[in-house]
Amino acid sequence: MKLQSLAVAVVLGTAVCSSFALDEVLPPLDPSQNFSNTVIGAFQDTFQFNLTGLSVIAVSITNNEINLGGSSFGGILGFAGFVDLPVGTDIPLTYSTTPVAGPDGSTIHVQRLEGNGLLPLGTYTIVVAGTGITGSTASYGGNVVATPVPEPETYAMMLAGLGAIGFVVARRRNRA
Q: Can you tell me the distance from the alpha carbon of 24 to that of 45, in angstroms, rounded to the nearest whole number?
């Protein structure tokens, strides 16, 4: 019991202390899951996820920067990211920003990173980097969604089953 308590304390201590570390590897993600982090200053976060077969993935990460009276809060400068592939070209996450009117005459700049691709079985890493605006914390949140692509054998079995049903129906019609 004491060993379990010690393990929990170490994990919690690591989670609290590491939220401001550079190049941190956060807990692995399921193929379809949300993730987030709060940062101060320069950071580079990595999130890993596993695919059990050929899948279409979509990644979206969002950060909000609020500009009020010439001051900015909560933003990330140089907000960038990519999906790191073990072999081949990484999938870049395209940056875009959309200004939205906020309360009290503020402007909220919604920063977004998005990308998608077709990936085979394997372990992949999402890398998010940037610098939180000096003197304040910044946070971002995102999600990765993986949709399995049926393998050719699945289609072949489905067609064979439909063919067998068609054969049985045709044979019954001929007997009648």
A: 5
Total length of the chain = 176
Would 110 be classed as within a structural domain?
Answer: yes
- Number of separate domains in the chain: 1
Question: Residue-wise over 8-23: b if at least 16 C-beta within 10 A, else e?
Answer: eeeeeeeeeeebbeee
Q: Name every residue whose Cβ is closer than 8 Å to that of residue 1 and which is 6 or more positions away in sequence.
A: none
- How many other β-carbons are positioned within 10 Å of the β-carbon of residue 171? 9
Phi-psi region of 69 (alpha: psi -120 to 50; beta: other; left: phi over 0): left
**Tens of pLDDT, residue by residue, the chain (176 residues):** 443 443 333 333 333 333 333 344 555 566 678 888 998 889 999 988 888 888 899 999 999 888 777 777 778 999 999 999 887 789 999 999 998 887 777 888 899 999 998 988 888 899 999 998 877 788 899 999 888 887 667 667 778 888 888 878 888 888 86
Tell whether 158 is covered by a domain.
no
Question: What residue numbers bound the domain in which 106 lies?
Answer: 21-152
9 is a domain residue: no
Burial of 51 (0-12, 13-18, 19+ CB in 10 A): middle
CATH code, domain with 139: 2.60.120.380
- Look at residue 63 and tell me if it is in a domain: yes
